[in-house]
Task: structure prediction
Amino acid sequence: MFLSANNIVELTGLLLAIVFLINDKNKIWRAQILFLIAVCIIELTGRYYRIIIQQNNSWIYNLYLLLETGFVSAVFYTFFEDYIKGRLYIIAVVLLFIIVYTKEVVSHGITKFNVNSDTLLSVHFCICSLLYYYQLLKSEGYEQLSKLPSFWWVNGVFFFYFGSVACDLFFYQLFSIPNNLRSDIYAILNLLLYSCWSYSFLCRYQQRKRLS
Result:
């Protein structure tokens, strides 16, 4: 079967994003649809290279790191509307990421995966998530978390990238366990991400309905 479990989860997330966000007037929420389209194309292309024509696909995911950095950082930037320090942090780390990414590409080329850039990105998004939670705790306004779109969107990011950091830290140890178990770990992380994101799309849709 060409489609993996991850592909099915991502395509489902895209479908739900289209259903719930297509008429959203907020550009960053509507841009989620374009981002997920790009994710699905990249993942399917990467799988095609690896399985069908059996060629190196690392360069595809290196390019994806740039898209991932830009979009997820942009979403956090909008969530930190009243948190200037959070926004400054995002700008600083994105600049650092560009430096690390460039050094890796110059060092070993685009065809070898940028592990350091990927790890930096995962840590960055974990910290962004913690800063969001801190901002939420410090807020004087009342928010019903079960219906707050940004909260569930950030939850998905935190679960996925915290798990990714853990996998990066134990990268070589993971090779001592069966390959299917390693795949299952990443599949669970992906499922957590898209489950939280899909629920955030629903919450955003309901939020728009309440305000209209």
In short: The radius of gyration is 18 Å.
